Amino acid sequence: MANVKVGFIGVGGIAAVHLEHINQNEHATIVAVCDISAERVKQVGEQYGANNYTDVDEMLENEIIDALFVCVPPFAHGNIEEKAAARGIHLLVEKPLGLEMENVKAKAKAIKEAGIICASGYCLRYLDTISKAKEYLQDKQIAIVRGHYITSFVQTPWYRVMDKSGGQLVEQSTHTLDLIRYLAGDVNTVYANMALQVMGDIPDIDIPDVTSVNLTFASGAIGHLVSSFTQADHYSGLEILGRDFRVVLDNTTLHIIDKDTTISYKSKLDFYGEQDRAFIDAVRFNKKELVLAPYEEAVKTLAVTLAANTSSETGQAIHLSEFMSASAVC
After folding, report:
1. E-assigned strands of the chain?
2. How confident is the model at residue 329 (pLDDT cuts 50, 70, 90)?
3. Which range marks the domain in which residue 88 is found?
């Protein structure tokens, strides 16, 4: 495929980053954009020379689209993915994929049956420093993992509502959790504590401002992730420890400490640009392996975050296999 015709559903927030990168890609053309805000989508359409719509069905019916970016809030997916998959349109679906495992697994089934390429928005997997960390860890036995995602409050109105965002772990800290899974392997059990501790004066808020998640992994390793939006600044990262080594990711900078030796790497690339380029190339050459965060991987990461929410509500440890089976799709 010489040139990939690209559509967008949702043009606010993270979509602006994808739009810029796709516009700069010589092998892709933005042909159509769709958003519930007529004013916003008209402006974006004019900016990128694309047809603009406020109705998804109308856009899919009228346009020839090879690849579609789905950049809507977690509560607003509806059946967008199923409709696109049925038309053979390749997808990049921003995280989180949704808020209910049963619905998301139904989407995964439709995507698999359609045979399309479907990437997810876990952009940090495309970091050059993560590539180096993964290579270093491939023959290492991991003992323990520690992660953190600490930042400020997001002013977007739906973010503060649990039924619309799923809370910070599902909506934001999921990036750190996904990296933990990518580097340390699948999670077996989850036990979480969450509370709205100090930010309760924010109007209409019902999501926790502090989260603590304990994890066990299929490898036998154990882990912990903390998450909070109580700060004025932002810092995130993780630490993976084994016998005589540790791998530390400080935001996007990597440190590998092996006995008495420390090697540090600073990231040299735009991971959003790398992600979008990989997706377009995967569509162009029909090479799914270029996608580092396929939809099925994003489903697993979502399951851990939703299981953590359930654990906090019930006070019980959640076994991921049972949690996934409970939302099985026939």
Report:
1. 4-9, 28-34, 51-53, 67-70, 90-93, 118-120, 144-150, 187-195, 210-217, 222-228, 235-242, 245-250, 253-258, 261-265, 318-319
2. low
3. 4-122+273-293
